[in-house]
Write a structure and sequence with these properties.
By secondary structure, this protein is mostly beta strands. The chain has two domains: about 45-135, Immunoglobulin-like (Sandwich); about 140-365, YVTN repeat-like/Quinoprotein amine dehydrogenase (Methylamine Dehydrogenase, Chain H, 7 Propeller). The protein is built from one helix and 28 strands. The protein has one helix spanning about 5-20, and strands spanning about 45-50, 55-60, 65-70, 80-85, 85-90, 95-100, 110-115, 125-135, 140-150, 155-165, 165-170, 180, 190-195, 200-205, 210-215, 220-225, 230-235, 245, 250-255, 260-265, 270-275, 285-290, 295-300, 305-310, 315-320, 340-345, 350-355, 360-365. The strands form six sheets. The protein has an eight-stranded mixed β-sheet with strand order 22-23-24-25-9-28-27-26, with no helix packed on it. The radius of gyration is 31 Å and the shape is elongated. The N and C termini lie far apart (about 105 Å).
């Protein structure tokens, strides 16, 4: 069999194959247009989501009534229901209502999605968003002053902790940020580390015998030796740095929003997060933090309140109203926000102060009627 015959035979076979498969459409680049292979299947248009309304609000644990209405006489074969990113039910054609349980969902904006199927059509997809808020009415506390200590009025307090009879304090403002060890009786620093001038220092906590300090918008934090206050290393994070505390295993960071981030202390990776809500709305501008008896306590920026937060859910358990603790005539003329919570675990003492306050207070909580 000569080569010419083989060539002609191969050409014939290609032509036969082309005639069987139909014409091949080419693109401008000479490539085969693969869209010809995709079957043109229309999306179904079967139902409306009549309840809940988009952007509705529900308390955690409250049931959401999902109600669908037909767009025409054609009923879907089935409807799949998704909530909080999980498939929760499949409804047959005669069922157009369902009760959605919210207790296991996190707080905040959550997607409720349905996919309606009919024959071989693409499913119809409808998504409404709902906001889940706390089902707990926060307890309200006032305070009683137990002791009053002097505090450096030039200290723009951003982080505060108590350890071994000393306060450790992070102060802010670019060019004037410090980490300091302070003697409580005098309010005088016994050791000061001046932070590099380009940084605005923020929250402070202790973990495994080391001090961790945030900065505001530079996405850089510092780890220090507890005794010498010398910098050991730096770490990085992606959000703004406001407050910092820890639960013994993780560090907990606030960024001025209503979110709290749980971080790996070794590499500062975000492990999880919660959104903070009370029984009315989200609670934002969470600032300086302290972990006390299994709760996160957070200063609320530009207010006289501290929120006590359940770290597992983000629900506000209580508010502490510290209005009037610093007399008006003792306040700095420009900046005097409450900011600074420290807990003496051994003696169960609670301390609070503020930015540029001349005093630091030991207080005891008093429940309001």
């Amino acid at each position: 069999m000569n080569m010419k015959f083989l060539y002609l035979l191969s050409i014939s076979l290609i032509a036969v194959a082309a005639s069987c498969n139909g014409p091949v459409k080419s693109t401008k680049n000479g490539e085969r247009d693969k869209t010809e292979d995709v079957p043109k299947v229309l999306a179904a248009s079967l139902v409306n989501m009549e309840e809940p309304a988009d952007n509705s609000t529900f308390s955690s644990g409250e049931q959401i009534n999902l109600r669908l209405g037909l767009r025409g006489e054609d009923k879907p074969d089935s409807v799949r229901v998704y909530f909080d990113g999980k498939a929760i039910a499949t409804l047959e054609e005669q069922l157009l209502e369902y009760r959605v349980e919210t207790g296991a969902a996190g707080l905040g904006k959550t997607a409720l999605k349905i996919m309606a199927y009919k024959g071989d059509k693409r499913p119809q997809v409808i998504t409404h968003f709902v906001t889940i808020i706390s089902d707990i009415e926060p307890i309200l506390y006032g305070y009683r002053v137990i002791n009053k200590f002097p505090h450096d009025q030039t200290a723009y307090t951003q982080g505060l902790i108590y350890h071994n009879n000393y306060f450790y304090e992070s102060t802010g403002v670019e060019g004037r940020s410090t980490l300091r060890k302070v003697e409580p009786r005098t309010g005088e620093p016994v050791k000061v580390h001046n932070v590099e001038s380009k940084f605005f220092a923020e929250g402070l906590t202790m973990h495994d015998g080391l001090l961790f300090q945030l900065t505001w918008r530079r996405n850089v934090g510092f780890v220090y030796d507890l005794e010498s206050l010398e910098e050991i290393r730096r770490f990085h994070y992606t959000m703004q740095g406001w407050g910092l505390t820890g639960n013994g295993e993780e560090l907990i960071l606030s960024d001025g929003t209503n979110k709290l981030y749980f971080l790996d202390p070794a590499y500062f990776n975000v492990l999880s997060s919660v959104e903070v809500y009370d029984d009315k709305d989200y609670v934002w501008q969470l600032n300086e933090l302290e972990y006390i008896n299994g709760e996160i306590w957070a200063n609320i920026y530009m207010s006289d309140r501290i929120a006590r937060i359940d770290p597992s859910t983000g629900k506000v358990l209580a508010y502490i109203d510290l209005a009037g603790i610093l007399p008006r005539n003792e306040k700095h003329p420009e900046i005097a926000e409450l900011n600074g919570i420290a807990w003496d675990e051994d003696n169960e003492r609670l301390f609070v102060t503020g930015k540029n306050w001349p005093s630091l207070f030991e207080i005891r909580l008093v429940r309001k009627p």
